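Deliverable D4.2, example record:
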Amino acid sequence: MIRILGINAAILVVGLIIAELIFGSWLFGPSWGTMNIPRDIHRVFDVSGLYNGPKEAVYSRDRWGLRGQYANPGAIDILTIGGSTTDQRFIGDGETWQDYLAHDLGGKVVVNAGIDGQSTFGHLRAFDRWLSQIPGLKPRYVLAYIGVNDAHLEGQQQWDDMASPSLRRRVERYITNHSALVQVVTTIQGTLKARKAHVVHGGSEYARGPWIAGTPPDPDKVVDAALLGAYEQRVEALIARIRAMGAEAVIVTQSRSDYRVTEAGKPLGRGTSPDSLNFGSWAMQTAFNRRAMAACARAGAVCLDLGGGLTFEDGDFYDWVHTTPAGNRRIAAWLAPRLRAVLQ
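Output generated by the structure prediction step:
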């Protein structure tokens, strides 16, 4: 009996090894290495305490780590890159600004390649370490929704490197990225028993009005010129990298919830009198946004200053930078007419 059990166990082990070699990517296929790009996941987050709407948000990413619907990687009209405001982990499938933008553009294929926590450092690395691993990826346009994370770079390095600083976590990620068995188990767990998690993004209450005009500082005098210059160079490099893959670049700036801008681009602060206003966040973000637009204009790319042109409303954010489904509709409605002519 023991001998039979041993033989059966040996056959099982050999079978698993053969299956891993055939169906895994240890020897063939894309080499994901230790990248912490979420792939083949289907998770359900409890967002009932975050914003009005459905209690749960379904977050899915496919085998290539992309979010959204597309026939094949070569049939994508717009590939979006950015940080958590692009990824939108706690916004359900069908309610991201990419989903609304695809609808507003008449069914154009808009796919989400955002990575939580990344700045332009990470976006540049993503082309060589991740996006180049996706067979046949050929978007017509790559839309970079950038600025917020670059204005707060401290502590972002592990996300920009797309690998954990922990050796143990890197080993775990390497096995996950190459093992067919682990991928099957993960997929089954995600499908049959959706992981429910409370949101960590919305740790602080976002600002609400009243919003009034005041006298803001000069943005160029608020941020170190060297930091702004380096950011401008990264935006230029990002445009060049997008074009190197055969796509055209669309650079879109960002905003925050702790100020508002009018249609004319004038800032509004929260307070009861002009003397009580604090425009620090607006000045810092605007300084980075201006440099992004300057780099974009020099390169002749598509430049959309959403951060200086879109007026958000209360209820559009669930924390300082992350938008709700209502905010996502507003983003899509602002982008669509400006992109429609470009996509003809």
